[in-house]
Amino acid sequence: MFEHFFQCPYCWEEISVLLDPSVQQQTYIEDCENCCNPIEFRVAFQDGELIEFAADSIEQ
User: Fold this and answer.
1) CB atoms within 10 A of CB 34
2) 20: which DSSP letter?
3) Are the CB atoms for 34 and 15 separated by under 8 Å?
4) How many CB atoms lie within 10 A of CB 39?
5) Sign of CA dihedral 44, 49, 51, 57
6) What predicted TM-score, i.e. pTM, was given to this entire model?
């Protein structure tokens, strides 16, 4: 697993997520551990290296 730190697009707190480098491309939704708002993650790995990471708010 790969730990990645980023700022929540809602509360701007720095939080971390665990990413699985064995899955090359991933898109999923997970709640912020601080403010509980849903965040859409888009992640891409190549040769075990993180090459793309996006954490965006979901318009409600």
Assistant:
1) 13
2) -
3) yes
4) 21
5) positive
6) 0.88
Pairing of β 25-31 and β 14-19: unpaired
Query: How many whole angstroms separate alpha carbon 33 and alpha carbon 31?
Result: 6
Give the model's confidence band at 60: pLDDT under 50 very low, under 70 low, under 90 confident, else very high.
Answer: low
30/37 Cα distance (integer angstroms): 8
The C-alpha R_g of the chain, in whole angstroms, comes to 11
The residue type found at 39 is I
Measured CA to CA, the distance from residue 26 to residue 30 in angstroms comes to: 12
Contact 18, 1 (CB under 8 A): yes
